[in-house]
Structures are given as structure tokens and as C-alpha cells.
Specification:
Oligomer: heterodimer
Number of strands of chain B: 11
Largest sheet of chain A: 7 strands, mixed, barrel
Strand order of the largest sheet of chain A: 14-21-18-19-16-15-22
Number of domains of chain B: 2
Radius of gyration of chain B: 18 Å
Shape of chain A: globular
Number of helices of chain B: 1
Number of strands of chain A: 22
CATH superfamily of the largest domain in chain B: RNA polymerase II/Efflux pump adaptor protein, barrel-sandwich hybrid domain
CATH architecture of the largest domain in chain B: Beta Barrel
CATH class of the largest domain in chain B: Mainly Beta
Largest sheet of chain B: 4 strands, antiparallel
Number of helices of chain A: 5
Radius of gyration of chain A: 20 Å
Shape of chain B: elongated
Largest interface: A-B, 29 and 20 residues
Strand order of the largest sheet of chain B: 4-11-9-6
Order of helices and strands of chain A: EEHEEEEEEEEEEHEEHEEEEEEEHEH
Structural class of chain A: alpha+beta
């Protein structure tokens, strides 16, 4: 069991999301960096989709009330267990009473990221709602009482102690094995969407060629971007229709909004593109104030990119299982 | 490990093309050399209460890293004070990172292999100064 010591809000329990609930008007929620969540879980021998704590605001502190194996992945936040520094993307074991501190993410390193994941042996044990343990903030269900974590909250590990003695190793983050940049700026791949053709040629060119700044009005619901405004060739009036995370809407201001994990399931703004599922983790980790580029892609490339993510996870799992197996003998 | 086990291992080794067999267990170490004709016991140490080793060796084959791939600064530069169990280097095997850990509280004296060097099992990696002991 862990006790939250930090007063900073916005940390939530997340798994890989509530798939299949959009038809009831329930958004997906889930980890903003699903690769980091899956990697943290496989370091512990958990199911890849076990629930973990997503931490977007630092410093963040928890106290272990009982011995428990854990892993920290995502942003490199100079984790410390009591006074012992831990490498990033690392599995470890805590003894009862020890305090884990996650500091402000290091921005000088090889990967700028903004969210850390604290995975526990067996996963965070909260009830499943509509097939997921993810916190659905808008609907106030899932996770811990449907809300962000507060100081004094306690969370249980589903299999505390199960991973003990099979820890003390880590993974090279997938950001280094799967880099994606355009002119030195972190990039995400985008499929043109239904209303793409309604923007001027200059705006379409600018959409692909200019860096888009992630404004402070960006969170789990959506990222509001700033750049040269996109201009439509005609008035696009649309009724509300279903949208999914990754959709890039253009409100009348011409400044795009990328829908993220807590996006509402419908909207009426025109859609200029969609960030492919395989690259949403890149955007989910991009810090406020940083810039990103959109790179045009195709359906086939989007599927191939998902396959490459899958291959990275499969290879990481194979190596981790080999290592855990050698330690068990 | 008793002498029967050593003799059994020696017989097995004689039947192979392997030149050297090293076995390390808790508090015990055995080296057998096969010179083509017969097998000799090179060393057979049963650890006593002597000082902990001041040099940490590679526990696996891998690429020895001074720094975590995400970071610019080394995990433990010479002169750094480290605690027992602290990660002072890494062995990389594909995406897997294994720790090179300090055996006890002390000071890092020197890092014995280049950053990125391919190392084998048992390669000396990091030398420590143990307070009150010998480097």
C-alpha cells in the first residue's frame, strides 16, 4: 500500500483506457503515454495494461506502508527512494516506511518529457468500471473515487511483494529507439481528416511546416496549440459528431486543438487531421511551452508505426523475462 | 561445494573443448582449467570474513555505460561518494539495463572501462575506496 504525501493535484490512476465505451458517450481516459505505462508494468511482470499512477505535476511523494515492488517510467524525474537515487525507467523494491520522491522532470537530457508513471506490483488495485480502472474525471468515476489523488489517499498494490527480489533493473526508454523529429523539433505523424480540403493552400502548407507551440491551456482533455492561424476557404458549419483522441480540431480562432485522452466524445469544430494512435504517447509527453511538428502520413504507415511500438514492447518483455528467469534460478 | 562436486565438474569439463570453468556462488569461488590433457583446480576459495571487494565486476555480458542513456552526466564520476547498493554504472543488453552497484558505502576511485565498451562476465568495472579499508 502507498500513501500519497503530495498536495499537488492532477495525479490520477490510469490504465490503457476504457476502450469501447465511446458509444455510450464515455471517453477513453487512460495513460497519456501508454508505452511508458506498459513498460513499467512489464518491468514488474504485470499485465501491460495494469493500472498505475500518472504524475503530471512535481515534486510528487508517496510513502510505502508495506514492502512493495514498483517501477517508475516516463519523464526522467530524478526519482529517489529515501536518499537513494534511482535511474529512470527502473524497477525497484521499497520497504515499509520508505518514501519515494519524484522531482521536476529533467529537461536537459536526451528526451523532453512531462509525465511520470508509478507502477506497483500487480497494478494499482481500484475497482474496474466499464472494463477499465482509468480515472474518468468528467464523469467522476473510475480510478480512486473518480477523482485526482489527494494528500492522505491510500492506494493498494494488487500483488504487493510478488515482484520482490526480481527488481533492480530497467529499460532504455522507447523514445531513444523510436525517435521522430522534423528539422530537430519533436514530431508526430498525422493523417489528413475530413475538412482538410477546406483550408487554404498556404494554411495547409503551414500546418505541416511550422512548429506548433503547446500552450499552457493544454491538459489531459486536449492540447491547445499556437502558431500562424489556419484559414478556411469557406464557412464550415457542422453539427456535433463523434470524435476520438488524436483528432485535431480547428476552432474559429484558427489555432488547432488536439483532443487527448480525456476528450469529450463529440464535437462540432472542423477537423484538419488526426494524430495517429502510435504517436499519441509522443504528444502526451510533450511539455507545455515546447513545440511539435506535424508530419503527414498514410494509413499503411500509421498501422506500421503501431506494429513498431508493439515490436519494441515484445522485445522489452522478452529481455525482461529472460533476465527475471535467470535471477529466479 | 565438496570435493566430490569438484571431481564431477572436472570429469564433465574433460569431456569438452572448454578451457576454463569459473563458478561463483555465495561466499565461494571455483576455477578449473582444462589444458587439453587434464583438468586442474586453479583456485577454490571459500570466502571468510575478509574485506568486501573494492572492485565491482560485470555480472553479465553487455555494453558498459557510464551514464544513463537519457542523461548527460555520469552515474558516478571518480571522487563521487556513493551508498551501498547505489547504481554507479549500467550494462546494456538491447533495451535491457542491468545495474552495476556499489558493494558498500564509499568513494568511486576510478571507472576501469570506457563508456560504451563491450564487457564480458567478470570484467572489472569500477574501483572503490572503502572508508577505513584498502582501495
Amino acid at each position: 500500500m502507498i500513501e500519497i504525501l503530495s498536495a499537488t493535484a492532477l495525479a490520477t490512476v490510469q490504465d490503457l483506457g476504457r476502450a469501447g465505451a465511446l458509444r455510450w458517450g464515455v471517453g477513453s481516459s487512460g495513460a497519456m503515454d501508454p508505452l511508458a505505462l506498459a513498460a513499467g508494468n512489464l518491468l514488474l511482470g504485470n499485465d501491460e495494461g495494469a493500472a498505475a499512477v500518472e504524475v503530471p505535476v512535481f515534486p510528487f511523494q508517496v510513502r510505502f506502508a508495506a514492502d512493495c515492488a514498483f517501477a517508475v517510467t516516463g519523464a526522467d524525474c530524478a526519482a529517489r527512494l529515501d536518499h537513494m537515487p534511482l535511474p529512470p525507467w527502473w524497477a525497484c523494491e521499497a520497504r515499509a516506511g520508505q518514501v519515494l520522491q519524484l522531482g521536476v522532470p529533467q529537461q536537459g537530457g536526451a528526451w523532453r518529457a512531462s509525465r511520470a508513471y508509478l507502477c506497483l506490483a500487480g497494478g494499482v488495485d481500484v475497482p474496474e468500471v466499464l472494463g477499465s480502472r482509468s480515472t474518468q474525471l468528467r464523469g467522476a468515476f473510475g480510478g480512486l473515487e473518480g477523482r485526482a489523488l489527494r494528500r492522505g489517499d491510500s492506494l493498494c498494490a494488487a500483488a504487493a511483494g510478488a515482484g520482490l527480489r526480481a527488481t533492480g533493473f530497467g529499460l532504455v526508454p522507447p523514445a531513444l529507439a523510436l525517435p521522430l523529429q522534423a528539422d530537430g523539433v519533436p514530431a508526430v505523424r498525422v493523417l489528413p481528416a475530413a475538412e482538410y480540403g477546406h483550408y487554404t493552400e498556404a494554411s495547409r502548407a503551414a500546418f505541416w511546416s511550422q512548429p506548433w507551440k503547446i500552450t499552457p491551456q493544454s491538459d489531459r482533455y486536449g492540447y491547445r496549440l499556437a502558431g500562424i492561424p489556419l484559414e478556411a476557404t469557406d464557412d464550415i458549419e457542422m453539427r456535433s459528431h463523434g470524435i476520438v483522441p488524436g483528432v485535431i480540431q480547428v476552432p474559429p480562432s484558427g489555432q488547432p486543438i488536439v483532443q487527448m485522452c480525456d476528450a469529450q466524445p463529440s464535437g462540432g469544430y472542423p477537423k484538419i487531421g488526426t494524430v495517429i494512435e502510435a504517436d499519441r504517447w509522443r504528444l502526451g509527453q510533450a511539455p507545455i511551452g515546447s513545440s511539435i511538428r506535424f508530419v503527414e502520413t498514410s494509413w499503411d504507415e500509421a498501422i506500421a508505426a503501431l506494429d513498431r511500438n508493439r515490436q519494441w514492447l515484445d522485445e522489452a518483455r522478452r529481455l525482461v523475462e529472460l533476465h527475471r528467469g535467470s535471477r529466479a534460478n | 561445494m565438496n570435493m566430490d562436486h569438484v571431481q564431477q565438474l572436472s570429469r564433465w569439463l574433460e569431456a569438452t573443448d572448454i578451457d576454463l570453468l569459473e563458478l561463483q556462488g555465495p561466499g565461494e569461488q571455483l576455477s578449473l582449467r582444462h589444458n587439453g590433457k587434464r583438468v586442474e583446480v586453479v583456485s577454490h576459495d571459500i570466502a571468510g570474513d575478509g574485506p568486501a571487494p573494492a572492485v565491482v565486476t560485470a555480472a553479465s555480458v553487455g555494453l558498459f555505460l557510464h551514464r544513463h542513456p537519457l542523461r548527460a552526466e555520469p552515474l558516478a564520476a571518480p571522487g563521487a561518494a556513493v551508498r551501498a547498493g547505489q547504481v554507479v554504472g549500467l550494462l546494456r543488453i538491447g533495451a535491457l539495463l542491468l545495474p552495476v552497484t556499489a558493494p558498500h558505502d564509499g568513494i568511486v576511485v576510478s571507472v576501469l572501462e570506457q563508456d560504451g565498451a563491450v564487457v564480458g562476465y567478470g570484467t572489472p568495472l569500477v574501483e572503490f575506496q572503502v572508508p577505513g579499508g584498502q582501495a
